[in-house]
Design goal:
By secondary structure, the protein is α/β, with parallel strands linked by helices. It is built from 10 helices and 10 strands. It has 2 domains: 2-116 and 296-314, ATPase, nucleotide binding domain (Nucleotidyltransferase, domain 5, 2-Layer Sandwich), CATH 3.30.420; 126-290, Nucleotidyltransferase, domain 5 (2-Layer Sandwich), CATH 3.30.420. It has helices at 33-36, 44-66, 85-102, 111-117, 161-171, 178-186, 210-225, 232-257, 273-282, 301-314, and strands spanning 2-7, 12-19, 23-31, 75-81, 106-110, 129-134, 139-144, 150-155, 262-266, 287-289. β2 and β3 form a beta hairpin. Zinc ion (ZN) binds next to α4.
Length: 329
């Protein structure tokens, strides 16, 4: 089964061709990061217009790179939410156009399920599995007993992991895009500042990162006020260790309670080196899987892989599909 998929929920325009819910034949990703550097973050109106500019090129090159034509495609999939409505709209309109024109059934995919299925590219999950979704907009723990059986057991009460990386990066003067650059700088840093580990020992699976962000800001202010020399690499590293420890503890607790056989860590911040190392080393006797780096951030391949299982379990959608800024798993 060949699926053509579209992703445009935030600042990446992406189109992909995937096969049998397992193989990526092509995955064209046009990033808007360079455009948003001068603004220090995503500007929704500009993002929408950039998607319009890039989507046709991404579509044509996805087909070309996969060496297929529309005759080979069985289904058209598209991210329906959550995300920026104006941005989602471009992917949805493109998918609907192709679906109608070539008479291929249309299926809407939840962006978060896409992130989860990025871990299942050329990889069969072992159920029950636990997905730790850490992206710019979400931090969620999801138990899966089977394909497309999502049980959200916890989420963040305030900032998402990627969001707090971006905000802390800004506090210590690291330019946009904060997360990846903070990761790079923190690699040479030392974990020398004892930052809080919010909700570490709470009984719930809820996360809270805004207090950690404030604590980092206070630390920087204190160091500067007292004329104490510091290096941002050490603050970056101390912050990363604090986030990683909280993620590890909650994950370990869920592994035990839900008898988890495999943990998948997905979303933009799953690319982080300290998070990867902490979870890999800290989780023993349970398999830990990360998507390949190129499938951690937003991409259409993960939407195509997820669509395959959605079609099998729930069938397809129709032309009435609309963009949704909020959408639960
Ligand atoms: O999944 P994603 O591409 O988009 C959303 O669905 O939100 O995630 C983007 C987020 C950004 O906040 C970015 O700073 C973060 O992922 N991110 C990272 C790293 N690479 C991207 N955070 C920490 N370390 C990284 N290496
Ligand atoms: Zn995402």
């Amino acid at each position: 089964m060949y699926i053509l998929s579209f992703e445009s929920s935030c600042d990446e325009t992406s189109v992909s061709v995937t096969k049998d819910g397992k193989y990526v034949l092509s995955n064209e990703v046009l990033s808007q990061i360079d455009i948003f550097k001068e603004y220090g973050g995503v500007v929704p109106e500009i993002s929408s217009r950039e998607h319009v500019k890039g989507i046709t090129y991404a579509y044509l090159s996805a087909l070309k790179n996969a060496n297929v034509t529309m005759d080979d495609i069985d289904y058209v999939a598209v991210t329906e939410g959550p995300g920026l409505v104006g941005s989602l709209l471009t992917g949805i309109n493109a998918a609907k156009t192709v679906s109608l024109n070539y008479e291929k059934p249309l299926v809407g995919v939840n962006h978060l399920s896409g992130h989860i299925y990025a871990a299942f590219i050329e990889h069969d999950p072992i159920f029950p599995s636990l997905a730790l979704v850490i992206s710019g907009g979400h931090t969620e723990l999801v138990v899966m007993k089977d394909h497309y059986d999502f049980n959200k057991i916890g989420s963040t009460m305030d900032d998402a992991v990627g969001e707090v990386f971006d905000k802390v990066a800004r506090i210590i003067g690291i330019p946009y895009p904060g997360g990846p650059l903070l990761d790079k700088i923190g690699k040479d840093g030392t974990n020398r500042y004892p930052l809080p580990r919010p909700m570490l020992h709470s009984n719930s699976y809820s996360f809270s990162f805004s207090g950690l962000k404030s604590a980092t800001l206070n630390l920087v202010n204190e160091l500067e006020k007292n004329n104490i020399k510091y290096e941002i690499k050490d603050i970056a590293r101390s912050f990363e260790e604090a986030v990683s420890e909280v993620l590890l503890e909650k994950t370990l607790k869920a592994i035990k309670e839900y008898n988890i056989k495999e943990v998948v860590v997905v979303g933009g911040s799953a690319a982080n080196s300290v998070i990867r190392e902490t979870l890999t080393k800290g989780i023993k006797n349970t398999k830990v899987t990360f998507p390949e780096m190129k499938y951690c951030g937003d991409n259409a391949a993960m939407i195509g892989i997820s669509a395959y299982y959605k079609i099998k379990k729930m069938g397809v959608d129709d032309i009435s599909l609309t963009p949704k800024s909020r959408l639960d798993l």
